[in-house]
Amino acid sequence: MASRSRRPERRQEPLSRERIVGAAVELLDTVGERGLTFRALAERLATGPGAIYWHITGKAELLGAATDAVVTAAVTAGPTGAAESPQDAVRAVALGLWDATEAHPWLATQLATQLSRTPWGTVAPRIFESLGRQVQAMGVPEAHWFTASSALMHYILGAAGQNAANSASTGPVGADVDRDEFLDTVSTAWEGLDPDAYPFTRAVADQVRGHDDREQFLAGITLVLTGITALHRPGR
């Protein structure tokens, strides 16, 4: 009688904090914060919720760890050449965070939460360090490091967060309207404003049409960096 061949058992990757956080990021990307439950996470990892609690104590810690993992990848993804200027390094960090908020719709809200409720955690210091080192390298006096770095961080996260909100929002004209059509609607509405009450807004209304959000974001970074450099140039 022929013996049955045993099917080789598939080796399960050991459960680790890193693996749990990676699965949490995937869940957040697909089902959002409300869909991130320990039961759903356990199903994705093919384990029991109890095993996850050995590594993560609760949802707040899980969200913080997921946010930190994405931020870490974002602020270290840029060019690191020896000839890179501090300004270029700031732009790389800024674009890394911009792209991360576009790729992960939940990230902008979590960044705001982490920075306002738990600034002593890992997320705020990680972003602040990545920008602050470049501010220091630009020759800004130590007394102004905090202000200059804060200005950069607030602009980057504010603009990236607004872009993420724009992408997620259906807007008043409906979810199926493409971006160019939406911007044209805004421009037309601004052009129709009272010329005495809104002369400036009417004047720039046409510039809204077809503008590139990413280019505008980088232009804002250049403005902030130029201001920092002008205020703190040697001998001033």
UniProtKB/TrEMBL annotation:
InterPro entries: Homeodomain-like_sf (IPR009057), HTH-type_TetR-like_transc_reg (IPR050109), HTH_TetR (IPR001647), Repressor_TetR_C (IPR004111), Tet_transcr_reg_TetR-rel_C_sf (IPR036271). One of its GO terms (molecular function) is DNA-binding transcription factor activity. The keyword Nucleotide-binding does not apply. It holds the Pfam family TetR_N. Residues 14-74 form the HTH tetR-type domain. Residues 37-56 bind DNA. GO terms for biological process: negative regulation of DNA-templated transcription. Keywords: DNA-binding, Transcription, Transcription regulation. SUPFAM superfamilies: Homeodomain-like, Tetracyclin repressor-like, C-terminal domain. This is Transcriptional regulator, TetR family.
